[in-house]
Design a protein that fits this description.
Layout lengths: L8 H13 L10 E3 L24 E4 L1 H6 L1 H9 L15 H15 L2 H12 L7 H12 L15 H7 L1 E3 L3 E3 L4 H9 L3 E6 L14 E8 L2 E9 L4 H13 L5 E8 L2 E10 L2 E11 L4
Antiparallel strand pairs: 1-2, 3-4, 5-6, 6-7, 8-9, 9-10
Helix pairs in contact: 1-5, 1-9, 3-4, 4-6, 5-9
Length: 288
């Protein structure tokens, strides 16, 4: 599907701009080191058994002091324990958690990445000019609760799915497309990295690749294929997926963008006025 699509030159331009402005992106090899190890194997549909092709963790090293010293990451990390990860179980949002959501949005809105994204969306007629109204729009897209599992109450939101991860009926991992959450879960022994996924002709990922397709277990379940940016800031991901979400009204949006000699497919699922899911897929890298 991706190869038949054309690269979206307009979106590529804003993505390259956001990439250049992402000063809070961590540097591979110095701020963090990853170890891709072996190519992950096939996992049968519905199975939670995967052959471990990676004896060591994905993250060999992360400068956590630096990570937590950057305001947007610090507020982001505060949000990761706010959710009941099982779908069908209603979320209870405390006033403290609401305040943490607001502080995170305040912090990212002061970054050049988010200011640039906001300006782009104003020019496209997709977002209000007033920063307070834009912040409300971001809140609806990312934090407004909705029903993912029809049997229960409001059990999910875009932020939870994409950045924290969810489980469905105790049988399936959904979401968890964020490298900081992956690293923290791995550090605490909750995530077990099983290896990278790649097309047959793709070499082993480089340690400095910023998009990785991987296989892992979490909460006793296996995710056969997950895809995630590595090293990028929370504001970069929020800005990027917000733009793709607002530039389309389709239930599922898939766009190709070119950035830094990579061709990426950005996939965003809509859940009413909110994001249902979003993640990147590497279509081709610098060496292909």
């Amino acid at each position: 599907m991706a190869r038949r699509q054309e690269v979206d030159s307009d979106l590529s331009e804003i993505v390259r701009n956001l990439w250049a402005l992402d000063r809070n992106r961590l540097r591979p090899g110095s701020d963090y080191i990853i170890s891709p190890q072996g190519r992950a194997g096939y996992v049968a549909q519905g199975s939670n058994y995967a052959t471990d092709r990676a004896q060591a963790p994905l993250f060999t090293y992360v400068d956590e002091a630096k990570l937590r010293s950057i305001e947007t990451y610090a507020h982001f990390i505060n949000l990761l324990d706010n959710y009941e990860t099982s779908t069908g179980v209603s979320e209870t949002v405390t006033s403290e958690e609401l305040q943490e959501n607001r502080l995170f949005l305040d912090a990212i809105m002061e970054t050049d990445v988010m200011m640039s994204a906001h300006q782009y969306l104003i020019e496209k007629g997709k977002s209000p000019m007033d920063p307070a109204q834009f912040k409300n729009q971001l809140f609806d897209i990312w934090f407004r609760l909705y029903h993912r599992d029809r049997s229960g109450g409001e059990d999910s939101c875009g932020f939870e799915h994409v950045f924290v991860g969810e489980t469905k009926n105790g049988k399936k991992i959904m979401g968890l497309h964020n490298w900081v959450q992956f690293y923290l879960q791995e550090k605490h022994g909750h995530v077990d990295y099983k290896g990278f996924k790649a097309r047959n002709n793709k070499k082993t990922p480089d340690e400095d690749d910023h998009v990785l397709k991987l296989q892992f277990s979490w909460k006793g379940l296996v995710k056969p294929i997950g895809s995630s940016f590595i090293g990028v800031s929370p504001e970069f991901e929020v800005a990027l997926y917000t733009i793709v979400f607002l530039m389309s009204t389709a239930k599922t949006t898939s766009v190709l963008v070119e950035v830094n000699a990579y061709v990426l497919e950005l996939v965003v699922y809509r859940h009413g006025r909110s994001i249902g899911s979003s993640y990147p897929k590497l279509v081709s890298g610098r060496d292909e």
